[in-house]
Amino acid sequence: MPDTLAIKRISASPSALIPLASLRSGGPVYSKLVDISKCIGCKGCEVACKEWNDLKVEQTTNFGSFQSHKDLSSNTWLLMRFNEVELGDGDDLTWMIKKDACLHCEEPGCLFACPAPGAIVQYQNGIVDFNQDNCIGCQYCVSGCPFDIPRYDKETKTVAKCNMCIDRVEAGLEPACVKTCPTNAIEWGIKEDMLALADKKIDRLRERGYEHAAVYNPGGVGGTHMMYVVPHGDRLEDYRLPAHPTASPGQLRGLNVLQRVGSYLLGFGVISALVHFLAVGPERPEESV
Amino acid sequence: MVLEGAVSAASLCYCTRGMAISRRTFLKASVGGAVGLSALGFDLAPVHAAVRQLKIRNAREYKTVCPYCAVGCGTIAYTHGSGGLNTTSTVIHVEGDPDNPINGGTLCPKGASQMQLAISPRLRKSPMYRAAGANEWQEVDWDFAMDWFARKFKESRDNTFMERDAQGRTVNRTNGIAWVGSATVANEDAYLITKTMRAMGLTYIDHQARV
Questions:
Q1: How far apart are CA A247 and CA A205, in angstroms?
Q2: What is the nearest CA distance from B52 to chain A, expressed in angstroms?
Q3: Chain B interface with A: residues with Cβ < 8 Å
Q4: What's the N-to-C CA distance of chain B in angstroms?
Q5: Which 3 state secondary structure label does DSSP give B189?
Q6: How would you classify residue B57: left for phi > 0, otherwise alpha for psi between -120 and 50, otherwise beta?
């Protein structure tokens, strides 16, 4: 059994607030690194994702963009967004491409929001996986996600998103999108290695005149396991990347207290009913006239 | 490790005693148990990991070449079944061949979806024919298509065959026909096509991937 699937947190369990103390070291912590400056927009990753995960094909229409689908869905876990942006005055029109898929946060807002035990599992290796068998379809994860990634499926009444090809990762393979990328725009490895690689890429981009080049690994969610190298780091909103996404277990502490009060009240009610039954006896219906 | 062993053993007993329990129920129960126990600090990763398995696990691998363009990326086609006498294999997955020096495992969107060339239900399996002047296609059988093609081919060749060119040199060529090969045929097919068409006197032989 590879260490790579040691569990870190499980939704709606004490581990959601305090990470499970794993019996083992947990093995490698992985990360994808998406270099937006290298992406040629071929959408091979989109196709590879659909193919590997056996996701249903959706009819697409031309809506005046190079983008294939308008939005993510429960059957489209990865969407290349082609944001057309004018860089300055005149004719500097450029694509600010975003590989829109789950970022696999270190502090996953979806998991903290989830009330269904075991529906969302975070592994030590960084992957946040949805287990549809345990999903109750409440869609709290959708509102809990700071990146607007999970999508509800009306047919199955469950929520789905990218699982970083956890079946492949467990078997020692890289995710399907990483493997297929023909320009090395998506790379895969140990998170520290990817951060080091990102630094090198940023240095190269700065040499080429992209002075605001930056890595997108937001601290508000404890860092992510899909990081971007963004050539225009000062214009995150044009990439549709939130500048300060937040999610933390603490945000839900109030809800947790409320839940506890509720369960005490429920217990009190049950005990009162029992005491009342023993002391007074069951209520007899009045005889009808 | 002791704890894990105990839990696996318990799961195993649960499985063997109740033979009516389906695999799905068993997995659900395992996961449920895992969730319950993990609250107590047990590490039950193995139980979770059993929920989703690699779909190409134990699949047979065939190294092949992407049929679509002139780059010729190396691919691996995975088929199910052991390949035994009583199985009919179907391709279940295709991905890039990491050992191939041309693409190093990568594939473009068209190459990544090449499995559809073999299994898509929308694939035409018989020739379509549109008669001269007609505005609709009709499905025809192969015999009709081959006869029609052979007749037209011979007609065109007879009408345009050139034994000598303007300077009187022997050329024996047919300028009235061009052949566009397909990237979806195998190397051997391509060899046969080229040889046959050259024998017919064609000089305009090209490949669809270059057009």
A1: 30
A2: 6
A3: 27-28, 31-32, 34-35, 38-39, 41, 43-46, 48-49, 51-55, 57, 93-96, 98, 103, 105-113, 115
A4: 62
A5: helix
A6: beta
The structure tokens 């064609």 sit at B202
pLDDT of the residue at B51: 56
CA gap A13, A15 in Å, rounded: 5
Q: How many CA atoms lie within 13 A of A3 on its CB side?
A: 9
Maximum Cα–Cα distance across chain B: 95
CB A175 within 8 A of CB A164: yes
- What predicted TM-score, i.e. pTM, was given to this entire model? 0.76
Contacts of B35 in chain A (CB under 8 A): 10, 13, 117-118, 134
**Residue A212 touches chain B, beta carbons under 8 Å:** no
Q: Where does the pLDDT of residue B7 fall: very low under 50, low under 70, confident under 90, or very high at 90 and above?
A: very low
Least confident of A106-120, B3-17, B29-43, B122-136: B3-17
A15 touches chain B (CB under 8 A): yes
Adjacent-strand bridge partners of A89: none
Rounded Cα distance, B95 and B106, in Å: 8
* Residue ranges per structural domain of chain B: 1-57, 58-123, 128-206
pLDDT tens profile A200-247: 999 999 999 999 999 999 999 999 999 999 999 999 999 999 999 988
Q: Which CATH architecture has domain B58-123?
A: Single Sheet (2.20)
How many angstroms separate the CA atoms of B66 and B74, rounded?
6
Lowest mean per-residue pLDDT among A106-110, B15-19, B78-82: B15-19
